Amino acid sequence: MITLSEKELADISGYIKEHYGVNLAAKSSLIEGRLGCYVMSRGFASYGDYFEFAKRDPTQQEMTSLINRLTTNHTFFMRESDHFDFFSGVVLPWIARSGDKDMRVWCAGCATGEEPYALSIYILEYLETQASAYGWDSVVLASDISEQALKTASNGLYSAENLSSVSDGRKLKYFTETAEGNYRVTPGLRKNVAFRKINLLDPFHFSKPFQTVFCRNVMIYFDAETKTKLIDKFFNALVPGGYLFIGHSESLATLSHRFTYVKPSVYRKPE
Q1: Side-chain-side CA neighbours of residue 147 (13 Å)
Q2: Can you point out the beta strands (E) in 149-221?
Q3: Helix axes 61-71, 147-155, angle to 10 degrees
Q4: 188 pLDDT exceeds 70?
């Protein structure tokens, strides 16, 4: 296995931070673990040689591959499940009371799709209990910077282990078991999620503001300045009263922001 030098770490992590906000300056083992075998399989003698090749690739496909390998995070269905309970028990009724039949929920940093599909399940289940649910638009926007992660998410095929926290009833209703023992999301669930490539460092503009933004376990590699700017962008992307969910290991306590604290990892834009 080739070793990542300090200069190579600085060059690669500096580029990733500048263009994507992810701080990998102290993550040499992560870079080696995710790139090592691939770099050698491509015939490069060092990470630096490969990185220069990726930067010079006129198609940008190699740089896309590098970003995919370094930024895609492992996730699973119903992760941090109390968020989904709060979303179902508090947020969805609040949206329904507003009289707006356009549910605008954004899952920012959706990785391989488990989170937006889980959100969609809770939305569909909630709407089934509402007599006035006819005509609702409940599509969840799911975004990520990794094209490979979005491809996996759009395909909607998951292992049984990945669905270990999903009840048998939900598996039966929202997934189809394959001959290999995996599970594919049903067409009804798939059409309720729209996948889109979005770099959170870039300006983002939407035709309408969201009622809810989930951005969980995405900012853990961002520095304070990047987090503050992103949180402000989320604030502007929400309707008054809209909710922001972040990961349980994350907090806005040390950042300057305009949100109101609701509970650990849940914040709200003042109405």
Answers
A1: 8
A2: 157-158, 175-177, 183-185, 193-197, 210-214
A3: 70
A4: yes
Nearest to 176 by CA among 153, 195, 151, 157: 157
185 secondary structure, DSSP code:
E
Tokens 């306590």, located at residue = 253
Inter-residue contact 133 to 127 (CB < 8 Å):
yes
Q: How many residues does the chain have?
A: 271
- Fill in the amino acid letter for 226: T
Using a pLDDT cut of 70, give the percent of the chain over it.
Answer: 96
DSSP 222: S
Q: Which residues contact 81 (CB under 8 A, 6 or more apart)?
A: 165
- Torsion angle of the four alpha carbons 138, 82, 214, 249, in this order, in degrees rounded to the nearest 10: -170
243 forms beta bridges with: 212, 268
Residues 50 and 8: their CA atoms lie apart, in Å, by: 10
Q: Are 207 and 238 in contact (CB under 8 A)?
A: no
The CA-atom distances, in angstroms, between 175 and each of 60, 74, 158, 182 are: 35, 20, 9, 9
pTM, full prediction: 0.81
Q: What is the pLDDT of residue 75?
A: 67
With residue 16 as reference, give the H or E element that holds it: helix 6-20
| pLDDT score of 73 more than 70 | no
Q: In this predicted model, what pLDDT tens digit does every residue of 2-60 receive, in sequence order?
A: 889 999 999 998 988 888 777 888 788 888 888 888 888 889 999 999 999 998 988 87
Read off φ and ψ for residue 199, nearest 5 degrees: -90, 115
